[in-house]
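Priority: medium. Attachment 1 of 2:
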């Protein structure tokens, strides 16, 4: 007959047997310690290193868990700092834009103070017809803001151009550097007359030409040229530029001057439109 421990050995009897053995070992260990000394030595030689190994593994795991926790914390800190940097960059960009806008407003205010006799309104450029030079462009104000054809436009410290078309909410401006532009000017305190010719070609070299200057006119480099009172389209006294060089014409009757314009025609954002006009004409 085959013994089946799963069926024949009751768990209750097994538990009783193990309990008896444990009690017996406890009594023997208490009253006869020398008897179990060899057993303790054997188990100590096996269990103690095993326990030490388990302790070392535990310490190693704890260290790794600590490192893992530190790495996780550092990653979270890094993510937070990146977010802070992005926010600071956005704030810096916003502040720089606001400072630039404030500077534009200050520049317009200073420009307005240069020509106190004229009524003006500020406008912003939103479109340019050509690349490189602002020779024809559009501003964001028009008839609804009392801007009509013939209104002079100023920028930086001087004359930018004139309104040639005006609509309800926008207007077209032709700059004095345009090939079709001509401005009657006066040179220096003596007021010698000249004709300032628009030319994109000469502007590529950084100057405009002031022609038809009387040969006897005493002019010098650095003299200021302003719009003349005899001009039929431009109001008097607006700065056009400064003489950079002078040459006698071949006809021996006139001389020509190179002018460095006051306005930077490569970068225009905000302008002032003078609402006063000399006369209503078509351009």
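Attachment 2 of 2:
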């Amino acid at each position: 007959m085959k013994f089946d421990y799963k069926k024949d050995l009751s768990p209750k009897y097994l538990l009783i047997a193990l309990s008896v053995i444990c009690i017996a070992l406890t009594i023997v260990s208490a009253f006869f310690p020398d008897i179990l000394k060899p057993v303790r030595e054997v188990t100590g030689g096996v269990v103690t290193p095993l326990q030490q190994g388990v302790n070392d593994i535990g310490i190693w795991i704890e260290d790794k868990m600590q490192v893992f926790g530190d790495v996780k914390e550092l990653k979270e800190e890094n993510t937070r700092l990146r977010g802070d940097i992005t926010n600071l960059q956005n704030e810096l960009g916003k502040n720089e834009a606001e400072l630039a806008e404030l500077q534009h407003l200050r520049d317009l205010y200073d420009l307005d103070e240069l020509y106190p006799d004229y009524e003006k309104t500020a406008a912003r450029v939103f479109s340019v017809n050509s690349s490189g030079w602002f020779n024809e462009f559009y501003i964001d104000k028009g008839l609804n803001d009392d801007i009509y054809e013939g209104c002079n436009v100023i920028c930086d410290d001087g004359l930018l151009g004139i309104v040639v078309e005006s609509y309800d909410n926008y207007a077209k401006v032709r700059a004095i550097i345009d090939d079709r532009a001509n401005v009657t000017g006066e040179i220096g305190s003596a007021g010698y007359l000249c004709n300032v010719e628009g030319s994109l070609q000469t502007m590529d070299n950084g100057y405009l030409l002031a022609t038809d200057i009387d040969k006897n006119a005493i002019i010098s480099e650095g003299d200021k040229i302003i719009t003349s009172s005899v001009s039929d389209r431009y109001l008097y006294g607006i700065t056009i530029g400064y003489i950079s060089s002078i040459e006698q014409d071949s006809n021996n009757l006139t001389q020509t001057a190179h002018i460095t314009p006051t306005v930077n025609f490569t970068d225009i954002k905000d302008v002032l439109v003078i609402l006063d006009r000399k006369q209503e004409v078509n351009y």
